[in-house]
């Protein structure tokens, strides 16, 4: 009888996990102006921020202080992956950086929050996704930053 009692809760817990994963909704954002796109879990950033008048991207927030921004900007200053990392290092406490010929990733701490940003360079544009969140919710956000930032695309965004 005791075996039956432990099996039922375990089965119910597994079913709840499977259902939660299956019902999770994503936001597939695509910017009409620059073609920048990325996907993120809707439940982690439920509140849209005011739309910028420039039309260069969009942002969302959560009650816990987390934010995500997906955008593009003109690369008027001949920015490179290395110059973006250098600029972030000058302004923030950078704890991780990586780059390739046309992409950069930088992460660390800014204003008592964790940030994780990915940039891709396409033509005269820099496409980006930036995620910021308080350290006390890192167990929720750390596992998703890789998938979310790797979903970033711009026109003709082959990975390199």
Give a summary of the structure in a few sentences.
Keywords: Signal. This protein has 160 residues and is of the alpha+beta class. The protein contains three helices and nine strands.
**Which architecture name does CATH use?**
3-Layer(aba) Sandwich
Characterize the main sheet: 7 strands, antiparallel
Cα radius of gyration in angstroms? 19 Å
Distance N terminus to C terminus?
58 Å
List the strand order in the largest sheet: 3-4-5-9-8-7-6
Mean pLDDT: 85
- Total of domains: 1
Shape by Cα distribution: globular
**CATH fourth-tier homologous superfamily:** Mog1/PsbP, alpha/beta/alpha sandwich
Secondary-structure element order, as H and E?
HEEEEEHEEEEH
- Tell me roughly what share of residues is in helical segments: 25-40%
Q: Please name the CATH topology.
A: Protein Transport Mog1p, Chain A
What is the CATH top level name?
Answer: Alpha Beta
**How many strands?**
9
- List low-pLDDT spans: 1-23
Beta-strand residue fraction? 35-45%
Structural class: alpha+beta
Keywords: Signal
């Amino acid at each position: 009888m005791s075996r039956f009692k432990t099996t039922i809760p375990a089965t119910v817990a597994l079913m709840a996990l499977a259902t939660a994963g299956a019902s999770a909704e994503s936001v597939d954002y695509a910017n009409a102006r620059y073609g920048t796109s990325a996907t993120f879990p809707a439940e982690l950033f439920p509140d849209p921020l005011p739309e910028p008048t420039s039309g260069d991207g969009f942002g969302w927030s959560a009650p816990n202080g987390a934010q995500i921004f997906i955008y593009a900007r003109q690369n008027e200053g001949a920015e490179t992956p290395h110059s973006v990392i250098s600029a972030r290092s000058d302004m923030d406490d950078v704890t991780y950086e990586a780059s390739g010929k046309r992409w950069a990733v930088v992460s660390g701490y800014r204003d008592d929050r964790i940030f994780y940003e990915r940039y891709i360079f396409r033509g005269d544009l820099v496409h980006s996704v930036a995620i910021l969140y308080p350290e006390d919710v890192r167990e929720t956000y750390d596992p998703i930053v890789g998938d979310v930032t790797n979903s970033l695309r711009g026109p003709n965004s082959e990975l390199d």
